[in-house]
Structure formats: C-alpha cells, structure tokens
Amino acid sequence: MLRILLTIVLPLALWVWAFIDCLVTPEDEVKHLPKPIWLIIVLLFPPLGPIAWLVAGKQRGLLRAGAAGGYPGQPADAPRRGRPLAPDDDPEFLASLKGDSAQGDAPKSGSLKKSDKEHEDMLRQWEADLRRREEELRGGDEPEDGRKS
Known about the structure:
Structural class: mainly alpha
Shape: elongated
C-alpha cells in the first residue's frame, strides 16, 4: 500500500497540483520562461516538470510581497487589479471626495444650489397642479357636508 502511495498517488497529485497552479498563476508572476512553456514542461515531464515549476517557475514568498499599500508582485504605485475595495477603503475615492469638497461642489447647510432650487420650484408646481386636478375631479361628486361616500 505504501509503495502504491509513493509511486503513483503522490506523483500524480503533485503533477495535477503543479499544472493547476501554473494555469491560475498570473503571467507577471511567472519567472524565467513564458507561461505556455511552463505548462508544456509540467505536462510532458511529470516527475521533473512539477518540481521545476515549484522551485523555479513562480515568484513565491517574500518575492511576491509588494511595497506598503501595493499588491503582491507590484509596487505601491502600480495600477490596481483584482478585488475592488469598498469606497471607504479606497484611497483614490476618498481623495476624490476631498478634492470635490475643496472645490466647493458639496452643498453647504442651509443653502441650495441653483439646480436644487429649480427642482424645488418644479415640485411645488407639480403639487399645485395635482391639487387643482383633484379638486376638478371631486367638484360635484362629494356631498356638501364633506363626508366621503
């Protein structure tokens, strides 16, 4: 049983794991050879290909860690990829908010921008028009004492 485990199962598991690892590794983390060449090496040379991939094919450990604020394998000022951040965790979004408030785009308390005033006037006109139409419809339908039928 141990002989089967050591000669068949472990090498097969290593081969499958190295192949999948090579497939999902981003191109910028592959070292020494292009990714398709590594895939061919892992597939065609089962005992040595996976071991070579694990030893020399991919950036691992401390080599992958970027600078503070960066992502693995990238400097901090490189463009971001991968999972998006929540707005309150995204420094670019927070900086844009600070820039907007510095320019005076955010309305101050007690004052409305011109477009807000226009919207308020339009809303008042619609409400007055709605009241007028309701009165026209109710005109002769309600009894004089004001009770609804």
